[in-house]
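Annual report, structural modelling task.

Input specification for the zinc ion complex:
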Amino acid sequence: MDFLDIELLDCPVCNGPGLLEEENGWCMYVMCLDCGSQTAEIAFHSREERKAAAQSAADLWNMGKVVSPTPGS
Ligand SMILES: [Zn+2]
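The model returned the following structure:
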C-alpha cells in the first residue's frame, strides 16, 4: 500500500483500529476491525483519483461519518 502518509483516527464508534480498504480496484473506504463500522465507498477511476479517494475516505472516517452495522445499539 502507498497510503502510509494518510492518518486514521481510532473508530468513532468503538475506538477500535481503522483500516483503509480498497474494493476490487474501484473504490476506497475505511472500516473498523472491531465493530465493522465503515465509511461510504469513494469511487475512483485513475491512479491519481485513487490517492484522492483514499484521502477522502480517511477524512470521512476522521470526521466520524461512518455507518454502523448495528444501528441503535
Ligand atoms: Zn469500531
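The pocket of zinc ion is lined by residues 11, 13-14, 16, 32, 34-35, 37 (CB under 6 Å).
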